[in-house]
Design goal:
Elements lengths: L18 E3 L3 E4 L9 H14 L14 H16 L6
Amino acid sequence: MWPCGDCECDAHGVGNGRWHIPGVIKKTGVCARRMVTDFSWQMLSFHNHYVNGNLAVPGGVTSQPGVYLEIMEIISEWMTHGKSGDG
Protein backbone atom coordinates (compact mmCIF):
# COMPACT_ATOMS: atom_id res chain seq x y z
CA MET A 1 0.00 0.00 0.00
CA TRP A 2 2.79 2.43 0.85
CA PRO A 3 6.10 2.77 -0.94
CA CYS A 4 7.63 -0.44 -2.13
CA GLY A 5 11.17 0.89 -2.02
CA ASP A 6 12.16 -1.87 -4.42
CA CYS A 7 10.71 -0.43 -7.62
CA GLU A 8 12.85 0.78 -10.49
CA CYS A 9 10.78 3.88 -11.23
CA ASP A 10 13.82 6.13 -10.85
CA ALA A 11 16.53 3.80 -12.16
CA HIS A 12 18.84 4.73 -15.02
CA GLY A 13 17.46 8.26 -15.42
CA VAL A 14 13.97 7.00 -16.29
CA GLY A 15 12.36 9.47 -13.88
CA ASN A 16 14.69 12.39 -14.67
CA GLY A 17 12.67 15.50 -13.79
CA ARG A 18 9.53 13.42 -13.45
CA TRP A 19 8.46 14.39 -9.94
CA HIS A 20 7.72 17.92 -8.81
CA ILE A 21 5.70 19.32 -5.93
CA PRO A 22 5.52 23.12 -6.31
CA GLY A 23 6.89 24.87 -3.25
CA VAL A 24 8.04 21.59 -1.70
CA ILE A 25 10.51 19.85 -4.01
CA LYS A 26 12.06 20.91 -7.30
CA LYS A 27 11.85 18.63 -10.32
CA THR A 28 13.77 15.49 -9.50
CA GLY A 29 14.45 12.04 -10.83
CA VAL A 30 14.36 10.53 -7.36
CA CYS A 31 11.08 8.81 -6.58
CA ALA A 32 9.16 11.10 -4.23
CA ARG A 33 8.06 8.10 -2.14
CA ARG A 34 11.67 7.41 -1.26
CA MET A 35 11.99 10.89 0.24
CA VAL A 36 9.30 10.28 2.86
CA THR A 37 10.64 9.00 6.17
CA ASP A 38 9.30 5.88 7.90
CA PHE A 39 8.01 8.10 10.72
CA SER A 40 6.07 10.22 8.21
CA TRP A 41 4.50 7.13 6.63
CA GLN A 42 3.50 5.96 10.10
CA MET A 43 1.87 9.31 10.92
CA LEU A 44 0.02 9.27 7.58
CA SER A 45 -1.27 5.79 8.37
CA PHE A 46 -2.54 7.03 11.75
CA HIS A 47 -4.45 9.92 10.17
CA ASN A 48 -7.53 7.88 9.22
CA HIS A 49 -7.71 6.58 12.78
CA TYR A 50 -7.50 10.16 14.05
CA VAL A 51 -10.27 11.29 11.68
CA ASN A 52 -12.44 8.40 12.89
CA GLY A 53 -11.95 9.43 16.52
CA ASN A 54 -9.41 6.76 17.47
CA LEU A 55 -6.74 8.70 19.31
CA ALA A 56 -3.14 7.75 20.05
CA VAL A 57 -3.54 7.37 23.81
CA PRO A 58 -6.58 6.70 26.03
CA GLY A 59 -8.62 9.75 26.96
CA GLY A 60 -9.84 12.75 25.07
CA VAL A 61 -8.12 15.26 22.85
CA THR A 62 -6.52 17.01 25.83
CA SER A 63 -4.85 13.72 26.82
CA GLN A 64 -3.00 13.47 23.48
CA PRO A 65 0.63 14.49 23.03
CA GLY A 66 0.74 17.98 21.55
CA VAL A 67 3.08 16.96 18.74
CA TYR A 68 0.67 14.18 17.70
CA LEU A 69 -2.23 16.64 17.47
CA GLU A 70 -0.10 19.11 15.54
CA ILE A 71 0.96 16.43 13.04
CA MET A 72 -2.65 15.34 12.53
CA GLU A 73 -3.76 18.95 12.03
CA ILE A 74 -1.00 19.53 9.46
CA ILE A 75 -1.95 16.38 7.55
CA SER A 76 -5.63 17.37 7.63
CA GLU A 77 -4.82 20.85 6.34
CA TRP A 78 -2.69 19.53 3.49
CA MET A 79 -5.30 16.94 2.54
CA THR A 80 -8.03 19.59 2.49
CA HIS A 81 -6.28 22.65 1.09
CA GLY A 82 -2.77 21.78 -0.02
CA LYS A 83 0.29 23.65 1.15
CA SER A 84 -1.07 27.13 0.62
CA GLY A 85 -4.13 26.63 2.79
CA ASP A 86 -6.27 28.39 0.21
CA GLY A 87 -7.70 25.35 -1.60
